[in-house]
Amino acid sequence: MYDYNTSEVMKKIERSNFPLDVKIPTKVPFEEMSMLESGTTDHQLRVRLLDKDKNVIEYRITNIPITYSNEIKQRKVVIHNNIEAVFIPKDTMKRILSWQDGDLYYEITYFSKVTPSELSKKQLVKMAESFN
Fold it and tell me: How far apart are CA 71 and CA 85, in angstroms?
């Protein structure tokens, strides 16, 4: 895992109406990831990261529950502090990990270049555990 510079995202949060008490990742699974794009509304923060090899990871924080179709294969996993998360190993070339912490819902999506297994479940969990 690699350190993630949060200063650009924190500036974005400070300029928005989004709650300042959100947790954002401090670690990412790819080296030299930087913000490709971001967006905020009163209900959601969305940040898309890109590295030099064109790996894309998006994280989303919202106060609206995140749900998925029952047709999508889902597994329960546990992240830090015994928080239960949902892991989706494959959803149209994406891997997803989502969980609730307090009143906020968090989601990490990896957009695969070839196969979703390019990023392991363990790496997604480690990124989730770095949200501070």
Answer: 18
Considering the entire predicted model, what is its pTM? 0.90
How does pLDDT run across 38-69, given as a tens digit for each residue?
887 778 899 999 988 888 999 999 999 999 98
Q: Write down the residue that tokens 């989706």 correspond to.
A: 88
Beta bridge pairs of residue 97: 87, 108
Question: With the C-alpha atoms ordered 88, 89, 95, 99, is the resulting torsion angle positive or negative?
Answer: positive
Q: 85 and 68 in contact (C-beta within 8 Å)?
A: no
Question: Based on the number of CB atoms within 10 Å of its own CB, is 71 exposed (0-12), middle (13-18) or buried (19 or more)?
Answer: exposed
Q: What is the CA radius of gyration of the chain?
A: 14
Shortest CA distance to 65 belongs to which of 104, 94, 39, 95?
104
